[in-house]
Amino acid sequence: xxxxxxxxxxxxEKECVTDKSNPCFSYTVASQRQNxxxxxxxxxxxxxxxxxxxxxxxxxxxxxLEPFSAYTVHLTVEDDQGNQAAAGxxxxxxxxxxxxxxxWITNGSYRFTEKKASPKPMYFKHTFSCQKSVVKARIYxxxxxxxxxxxxxxxxxxxxxxxxxxxxxxxxxxxxxxxTKQLAKSNEMEVVVAGGWASGAFTYARRNRVYxxxxxxxxxxxxxxxxxxxxxxxxxxxxxxxxxxxxxxAEFYNGEIYDARFHETQRSxxxxxxxxxxxxxxxxxxxxxxxxxxxxxxxxxMTRSPSGKWxxxxxxxxxxxxxxxIQGNEGQKLTIRHAEILMDGxxxxxPLRTAKQAIIYTCKEGKQVYQPRLTYMGFRYLSVEGIDxxxxxxxxxxxxxxxxxxxxxxxxxxxxxxxxxxxLWGAKSNFVDIPTDCPQxxxxxxxxxxxxxxxxxxxxxxxxxxxxxxxxxxxxxEQRKSxxxxxxxxxVVVPFQWEIMIPMAVDHWGDAVILVPxxxxxxxxxxxxxxxxxxxxxKYHKACLFWAQLFSFGKHRRIWRxxxxxxxxxxxxxxxxxxxxxxxxxGTASLANTSNLLAQIATILGYSEDSTYYQKIFxxxxxxxxxxxxxxxxxxxxxxxxxxxxxxxxxMLTETDAKKxxxxxxxxxxxxxxxxGTGFPGTPYILFALADNGYVEEAYRMLLTDTCPSWLxxxxxxxxxxxxxxxxxxxxxxxNTGADDGTNGMVSFNHYASGxxxxxxxxxxxxxxxxxxxxxxxxxxxxxxxDLTFAKTKVRCSYGEIISNWQxxxxxxxxxxxxxxxxxxxxQMPSGQRHxxxxxxxxxxxxxxxxxx
Length: 853
Ligand code: BGC
Known about the structure:
alpha+beta; 6-stranded antiparallel β-sheet; 22% helix
């Protein structure tokens, strides 16, 4: 039996609305039969047909698609035995290249001038009737600010924080919602728009009005009636607006203030004004992944704090909101505060810096349910004031971009399983429309270095395609003329206020323009992500070279010292300047790595001359690192773990030098009693650098060490996410708040960056590694070690499900492998015995230290 297991338009199985003239169609098939191959696959859309037998991403190139239209693309697949399967996938187009006839509206009487604050929520309302029977109705909407709409009292759609965060100067998404079933004969639509990212206070500098002086809203309702007639309702001065409403304040950092006593009679609606919007973005159908509700948590415990507040432990640190079911009295005021950890029995709010993370809710009489809509918090613990526990039910709702979980890893060590869970929660909490650094304090910004280093781990666990596509578009838009990539995207504020830094190329942070598309390509196999970003990659690389070469001669031209580097950011030893002064090593290694990757990317895209050029830079830079930063014994002049990890992992060393460097790294690791010593750039790769160079035992010992600093210390200390600093909590229970190390009090308990070790779980413990993009060819080469007796791993790649389940019992190593249709696996057993496998399920075993059976 041949089965189509997934068929998508623009990576969505349903509800795709696109403005693209060439949407991408993908499918996966599965069969019970071993060695199934696809003989023929055909895609059809109207007159257009396409041979989809080979490859897994097919772009439409038929007659132009019409705007605001519905389409179905059909797929038929036949295998080598004549079994057939067929499927269809519906999608719609949006406005395509055209423009909306709606106008931007605002509350013209609202003047918002306060600094470092967020504007008051702005309300809009429109009433209209539908006298005939409706066959299809859509609303297309966007805002400057973040909006939520209700139709006849019911929320439209499931999204939070629409229109999402993009580089608004360049592009702004609009959302499409099917409201056919929600329409009645007479309708009232209400919209609330908070400041959000466009005009609310954002970043640690609390800049506001960055993209708009106040909120604005734009929408069109398209209604098709059964008699064939069509009606369009657009935002204009016929809409009403008000500044009064139950929601008094809404901000990402501070939370919400809500008064449930609010009554419609307290509101004076006035006609909306047309807004002159100062930016001119391209308005595009949603390409990113909407933020939605996910896991719901019930409190694990409730206690009374020394100061008399009720404390709730939700059992998991996450990004999200509370849902409150309250039995209240009119005018009763509740305050809910959120924090990641407790210290001395109270919420530890110091790491939040200026973010209040609070809900202030005033009750109406009786039973009521409230959950914030236009804010989110990073928290595990809550304090509740103003109500007794019997009168309130509290739940926690995780909010994050609706990325599909595509991987899973479990093994025999419960602490590692908890670490994997912490990695996933670190990711979920920071995929809130853009890849953020953390979900709690006054940042939550798109720091490029964090995702650059986490990208492969993210792709092992989640389908990142749409999430990256949206963000990479902003990366390209925000690239400076000189080629530099801002350290946060979208760019809102410049670190340290050094405006001059904007054009800077910053190692590993700017590398996101190469590392993120590369991770996505390896995972999906679609070269389009490389093609669209290639120009920006080249420009960035040129900027890196510029800084490396400035004031340098000879071989020194490949040592990248100048100017601004984050270096070995958050390494356990030293302070801000210790990390940054390691920039010469991290910068030079980054230059080698990006050159090497660009050489590979150029080859994939067919630019052979470019490839030769980048290879040359890679070799020169590697040689310079070896000759100028290391001595003849493969010892870096200033020893720290990252200085060995990067040249080893980036394959910058000759075989002999790699041996020496690895021995030095292993010595350093042993001297440090297997504790981690790396900052952001070294952390994802240290276990690879050890294990791949003959130090498997050291790699496992480091992974399994559970005293501070280490990954498992975080687990032992009760962490449920990944920490920003290795000693965010110390062995003695105190916190390193970064109060005196130049970082402006920087400590978060929910940063995914150091969770990049998760890549080692998939690529080394399970041994699943793509050799060709999309896992068309992949290895299964488990590295056994530590105390592990089994590891079960799945990767849902674009061809189907890969499985590597191994176990050790009675002196035997055995493994189950599943290879999807269209792929080839190279299995290597611990003995070195190799098997080449095509589609199917397989089992192998061998005596440990012996031969295969
Ligand atoms: C962020 C980091 C970021 C770093 C850059 C911090 O404040 O939270 O994750 O990459 O700054 O230096």
